[in-house]
C-alpha cells in the first residue's frame, strides 16, 4: 500500500525537521493559512506543512488535516524519486522512471482504503471539507488538485492539475483550459450530448501527483504512466458510480465522483493563478457530485497557487522532457532550467557546448514550440550554471550582442494571450573565439578547501572596514 499517509509517516521519521505541524485552529476565509505558507515559501527549502485543526466551510471543526508543500523543495523532490541531484539529475530521473512503465493492479473494494467511508449522492455536502481561500480577491473556495476523465472514443484515462470551485453542497466547476487534454475529452462527451464522468483526487502518494505531469500525447493512458512512480504499480478499484467502467485510485485519501452536465455553465474566477495575476471572470462547465470515497480519518491535499510547490510541479517535468528533446537535435546540450522568476513556465535557460553558429537559436525555437506558456528563452555556454540565475544574467549582460543576438518572434500561439503573442530569444553565448578569458581559480585547490577546516562554528566573522 502506497498512499499520502504512508509517505508522510515514513518521511517524517527520516526527516523530522522538514515536516511542520500547525496545531492552532485555522479558518478558511481569513488568509492566515496563505500568510503562513507565503512566509515559509521565502525559505530556500520550505518544509511540508500540515494544518491539524482546520474549520470547514461551515465554520465547524473538521477532523481532516490540510497538507501543503510536499513538492516545495527541489531537494525533497529529488529525494522522493531517487534522483542524483536537485538540478539536471531531477529532470533526467523523472523521465527514466516513465520509461519503466508498470501495469496498474486492480483490487476489490475490500482491499481499497479509499472505500473505508462512502458518501452517497443524497448525503454529499462539499462544505464539510476544509478548503481555504488563497488570495484576497479569489472568487469562492477552490480545490486545487487533480481531475481525471476517461476517453469516450478510446479506452484511456487523462489526469491533470486543475481547480474546482465549490458552487454549492453538491456542485463544482470544471476548469480545464481550451486545448488541454482534459478539455478535449470533455468536448467529445458534450458534442454527443452526454454527461462526462470525472473524478477529483484530493490527496495521494507524491508518486501519483508526479505521474500526472509528464508531457504525453493525447490518448496516453495516464494510469500506466502514473504506475511507473510506484514500487509495485498503482492500485485501482471500481468506482461507486460507474463500477469497473471507471476505476479510481485505491490508496487515495479522498476521491470525489461526478458527472459534467452537458451545456451547463457557472461563473468561476477571479482566481490568483500561476502567472502571479488573477484569472479573469469566466463561465466554466459544472460537475454534479454523485459519490465521495474516503479513507478513515483522511488527509486533504491542496496546492498554494504561484508558489514553489506549484512551480516545481510544472517546471521539473518540463526540464526533463525538453532536455530529452533538445539532445536529439544537439547532444552537446548540457542542461535546461525553468526558473522560479518565470513561474517555472514562462522562461527557460538552456546551456550548450556550442560547436557551430546558429545552434542556440535553433534550440530556442524548438523549446518555444514545446510549450505555449513559454515566452522567453535564454541560451548560454556550457560553463554557465543555468540553475544559478546570477550566472545566467551575467552571461546575458557580458556575452550578448544586443544588435545581433536578441530576436523577437511575433504572432505565436500563447496560453495567456493577455501577455501578448511575442516570444523572446536571447543568445548569450560567446560569439568571438578571441573573447576574453573568464576569471578562474585553481580547481584542485578549490576542491580541497573545506570551510569547516578553516572556519569553526565558534569563529567570529568581522567585517573589514
Characterise the protein shown here:
With 465 residues, this protein is α+β, with helices and mostly antiparallel strands. Among the domains are: 74-296, Electron Transport, Fmn-binding Protein, Chain A (Pnp Oxidase, Chain A, Roll); 330-431, UbiD C-terminal domain-like. It contains twelve helices and 23 strands. It has helices spanning 4-14, 32-41, 74-81, 88-99, 181-191, 206-211, 222-227, 308-329, 359-370, 389-399, 443-448, 451-454; strands at residues 19-26, 48-54, 66-68, 105-106, 117-120, 142-143, 146-150, 157-161, 164-168, 171-173, 196-201, 235-239, 243-249, 254-268, 271-272, 278-279, 282-294, 300-301, 333-337, 347-352, 376-381, 406-409, 423-428. Strands 5, 6, 7, 8, 9, 10, 11, 14 and 17 form a nine-stranded antiparallel beta sheet that branches. Helix 9 links the parallel strand 20 (347-352) and strand 21. The mean pLDDT is 94.
Helix/strand-derived class?
alpha+beta
CATH class wording of the domain at 74-296: Mainly Beta
Please state the overall shape, judged from the principal axes of the Cα atoms: globular
Average of per-residue pLDDT values: 94
If classified by CATH, what would the architecture of the domain at 74-296 be?
Roll
Query: Number of helical runs?
Result: 12
Which percent range fits the helix content? 25-40%
Low-confidence stretches: none
Q: In the CATH hierarchy, what is the superfamily of the domain at 74-296?
A: Electron Transport, Fmn-binding Protein, Chain A
Radius of gyration: 24 Å
Strand content: 25-35%
Main sheet characteristics:
9 strands, antiparallel
- CATH topology type of the domain at 74-296: Pnp Oxidase, Chain A
Instruction: Report the count of strand segments.
Output: 23
Amino acid at each position: 500500500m502506497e498512499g499520502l499517509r504512508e509517505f508522510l509517516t515514513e518521511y517524517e521519521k527520516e526527516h523530522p525537521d522538514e515536516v511542520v505541524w500547525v496545531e492552532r485552529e485555522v479558518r478558511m476565509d481569513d488568509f492566515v493559512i496563505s500568510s503562513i505558507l507565503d512566509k515559509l515559501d521565502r525559505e530556500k527549502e520550505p518544509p511540508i506543512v500540515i494544518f491539524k485543526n482546520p474549520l470547514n466551510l461551515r465554520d465547524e471543526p473538521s477532523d481532516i488535516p490540510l497538507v501543503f508543500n510536499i513538492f516545495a523543495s527541489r531537494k525533497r523532490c529529488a529525494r522522493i524519486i531517487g534522483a542524483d541531484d536537485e538540478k539536471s539529475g531531477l529532470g533526467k530521473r523523472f523521465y527514466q522512471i516513465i520509461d519503466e512503465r508498470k501495469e496498474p493492479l486492480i483490487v476489490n473494494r475490500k482491499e481499497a482504503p479509499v472505500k473505508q467511508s462512502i458518501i452517497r449522492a443524497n448525503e454529499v455536502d462539499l462544505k464539510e471539507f476544509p478548503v481555504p481561500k488563497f488570495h484576497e480577491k479569489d472568487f469562492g473556495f477552490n480545490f486545487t488538485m487533480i481531475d481525471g476523465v476517461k476517453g469516450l472514443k478510446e479506452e484511456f484515462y487523462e489526469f491533470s492539475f486543475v481547480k474546482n470551485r465549490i458552487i454549492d453542497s453538491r456542485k463544482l466547476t470544471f476548469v480545464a483550459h481550451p486545448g488541454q487534454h482534459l478539455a478535449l475529452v470533455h468536448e467529445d462527451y458534450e458534442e454527443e450530448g452526454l454527461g462526462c464522468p470525472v473524478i477529483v483526487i484530493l490527496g495521494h502518494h507524491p508518486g501519483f501527483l508526479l505521474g500526472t505531469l509528464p508531457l504525453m500525447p493525447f490518448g496516453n493512458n495516464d494510469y500506466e504512466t502514473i504506475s511507473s512512480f510506484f514500487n509495485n504499480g498503482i492500485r485501482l478499484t471500481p468506482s461507486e458510480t460507474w463500477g469497473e467502467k471507471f476505476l479510481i485510485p485505491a490508496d487515495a485519501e479522498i476521491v470525489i465522483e461526478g458527472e459534467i452536465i452537458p451545456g451547463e455553465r457557472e461563473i468561476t474566477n477571479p482566481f490568483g493563478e500561476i502567472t502571479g495575476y488573477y484569472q479573469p471572470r469566466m463561465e466554466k462547465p459544472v460537475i454534479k457530485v454523485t459519490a465521495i470515497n474516503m479513507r478513515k480519518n483522511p488527509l486533504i491535499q491542496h496546492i498554494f497557487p504561484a508558489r514553489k510547490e506549484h512551480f516545481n510541479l510544472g517546471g521539473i517535468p518540463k526540464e526533463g522532457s525538453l532536455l530529452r528533446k533538445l539532445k536529439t537535435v544537439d547532444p552537446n546540450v548540457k542542461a535546461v532550467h525553468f526558473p522560479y522568476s518565470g513561474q517555472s513556465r514562462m522562461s527557460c535557460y538552456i546551456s550548450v557546448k556550442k560547436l557551430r553558429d546558429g545552434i542556440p537559436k535553433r534550440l530556442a525555437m524548438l523549446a518555444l514550440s514545446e510549450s505555449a506558456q513559454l515566452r522567453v528563452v535564454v541560451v548560454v555556454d556550457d560553463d554557465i550554471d543555468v540553475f544559478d540565475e546570477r550566472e545566467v544574467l551575467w552571461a546575458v549582460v557580458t556575452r550578448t550582442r544586443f544588435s545581433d543576438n536578441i530576436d523577437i518572434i511575433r504572432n505565436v500561439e500563447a496560453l495567456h494571450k493577455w501577455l501578448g503573442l511575442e516570444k523572446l530569444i536571447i543568445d548569450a553565448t560567446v560569439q568571438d573565439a578571441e573573447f576574453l578569458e573568464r576569471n578562474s581559480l585553481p580547481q584542485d585547490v578549490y576542491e580541497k578547501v573545506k570551510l569547516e577546516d578553516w572556519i569553526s562554528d565558534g569563529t567570529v566573522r568581522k567585517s573589514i572596514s
